[in-house]
Write a structure and sequence with these properties.
The chain is mainly alpha-helical. Helices cover 49% and strands 5% of the residues. The protein has 21 helices and six strands. The strands form two sheets. The chain has a three-stranded antiparallel beta sheet with strand order 1-3-2. Strands 4-5-6 form a three-stranded antiparallel beta sheet. The N terminus is likely disordered. The structure holds coenzyme A.
Length: 478
């Protein structure tokens, strides 16, 4: 991994007339008249720390302001590469198209975490170890049964991952010391356990939601087959999931496995930076993924398509989007300013799935919506293209998944990406607690006033009140 040299030693404060060095950024602070020269890394960035050399009259370092991290690099990584303008996505340098076409999901998991494709022997050890860890701790299974019948499965997933932490104190830096993750065998154990049991937790969440008992995993099956059987098996019947459905999920899992510093992966790194255990860090990752701007978008897309209902309603919907009354879910991306390469692959997968389970009628709305949006100046100008979530929902619906399971189907494979980044980060020599600065614009040095001297400020304190509350309040005796 190439990193830039110690920037501090390269920063110079020199007179304006000094000749500019190649591959440097020259900054003139017009307040002091000083000129600074910062090295530009071959990967086209300058270390933010360099700017701290520039100080104001009070000696305060100059900060960089970037809400939403739209132009900030937060780490050095060699897991995933994206070229958003060209629509390129690679895992460890291998194009996503090749992986989707030829690899198995667990092989990709190995690639993401260990950095290279496994040999046949390594792959067989890896698969055996992951599948050996598909059994879920009984207590966690019992806890999952206590959720309300209509609990959102992402809520169950977040809570189960957090509860998981309580079952493994031996892997918790807060309890066993900060060095616990220096033990590589212990680290591997958590990786096998989490990749192994995430489909079991997801299947339990689904079964709980539909009022059926939990199926036990079958470690002799393939990873995806095992997941599908846990979802669907009733009683003693024997099942072998259809190969087209297995292939489709295999591709969807590969496409969702990683996407460099997206919101949830950054959240996992952020949490792990405090030294919290991997289960708690991942619980935060699942929570971040749940949001409709991120992994919850596939669910939001489906709800949007259902609301549009049929192609003739699209123009009115597009007008509302352009008037900024709503967003076209499944379109746009922070990084891709071109067609998301994953969306192209998913469109093909949809056709294959429809051959087996029948066509989902909403596909007509989705394809027409895409056609219209891609020709509309609003979307063209802003470089808004379909992203990974635009077509996944339609496939999941055709496969009979309830809409609220869609983000869960994203979370299973993304767990691998989170673990790959966690694995990289805990061994990173630049590992440090993530702690950004803020642009403070609030008051300073205010006195603590006695109650009688306080001025009235019209703060908004109302909340909604249910009919039950109103009835109860009327009955309360003063
Ligand atoms: C993914 C997303 C959050 C990226 O956000 P971002 O990089 O912060 O981009 P912004 O929200 O600043 O959007 C840039 C411009 O495009 C518009 N835009 C972005 N996504 C849009 C969408 N899906 N529909 C309509 N307009 C959109 C914004 O209104 C903004 O317009 P403006 O410059 O006139 O204000 C955003 O595109 C989005 O909300 N998409 C829909 C949700 C989704 O599919 N998420 C899954 C991502 S894989």
């Amino acid at each position: 991994m190439e990193r830039i040299n110690n920037v501090k030693s390269s920063v110079t404060a020199s007179p304006k007339s000094a000749p500019a060095q190649p591959n440097t950024l020259t900054v003139v602070d017009n307040r002091s008249g000083k000129t600074y020269s910062f090295p530009i890394d071959t990967n086209n960035f300058v270390k933010a720390e360099a700017f701290a050399q520039i100080k104001d009259g009070q000696g305060e370092p100059l900060r960089l302001y970037d809400p939403g991290y739209t132009n900030t690099i937060n780490c050095t990584s060699s897991i995933c590469y994206i070229d958003g303008d060209k629509g390129i996505l690679e895992y460890r340098g291998i194009p996503i198209e090749q992986l989707a076409e030829r690899a198995e999901f667990l092989e990709v998991a190995y690639l993401l975490i260990h950095g290279n494709l496994p040999t046949p022997q390594q792959y067989s050890v890896w698969k055996r170890k992951v599948m050996k860890h598909t059994y879920l701790n009984q207590d966690l299974g019992e806890m999952m049964k206590t959720f309300r019948y209509d609990a959102h499965p992402m809520g169950m997933l977040i809570s189960s991952m957090a509860a998981y932490s309580t079952l493994h104190p031996e892997a918790n830096p807060a309890l066993r010391g900060a060095d616990v993750y220096k033990d590589r065998k212990l680290v591997n154990k958590q990786i096998y356990r989490i990749i192994g049991t995430i489909p079991t937790i997801a299947a339990n969440a689904y079964r709980h939601r539909i009022g059926r008992n939990f199926n036990k995993p079958n470690s002799s099956l393939d990873y995806i087959e095992n997941f599908l059987v846990m979802l669907d098996q009733l009683g003693a019947e024997r099942m072998r999931p259809h190969k087209v459905i297995v292939k489709a999920l295999n591709i969807l899992f590969i496409l969702h496995a990683d996407h460099e510093q997206n919101c949830s992966t950054s959240a996992v790194r952020h949490l792990a930076s405090s030294g919290v255990d991997v289960y708690s860090a991942l619980a935060g990752g699942v929570a971040a993924l749940y949001g409709p701007s991120h992994g919850g978008a596939n669910e939001a897309v489906l709800r949007m398509l259902e609301e549009i209902g049929s192609p003739e309603n699209i123009p009115r919907f597009i007008e509302e989007v352009k008037a900024k009354k709503r967003r076209l879910m499944g379109f746009g991306h922070r990084v891709y300013k071109n067609y998301d390469p994953r969306a192209k692959i998913i469109k093909r997968v949809a056709e294959e799935v429809f051959q087996v389970v029948g066509k989902e009628p909403l596909i007509e709305v989705a394809t027409r919506l895409e056609e219209i949006a891609l020709k509309d100046e609003y979307f063209v100008k802003k470089k808004l293209y379909p992203n990974v979530d635009f077509y996944t929902g339609v496939i999941y619906k055709a496969l009979g998944f309830p809409t609220d399971m869609f983000p869960v189907l994203f979370a299973i494979p993304r767990t691998v990406g989170w673990l790959a980044h966690w694995h990289e980060f805990i061994r990173d020599k630049e590992f440090k607690i993530v702690r950004p600065r803020q642009n403070y614009v609030g008051k300073r040095n205010q006195p603590y006033e006695d109650e009688k001297n306080r001025k009235f400020v019209d703060n908004f304190l109302d909340t909604y009140e249910s009919a039950v509350s109103r009835r109860r309040e009327k009955s309360l005796i003063e």
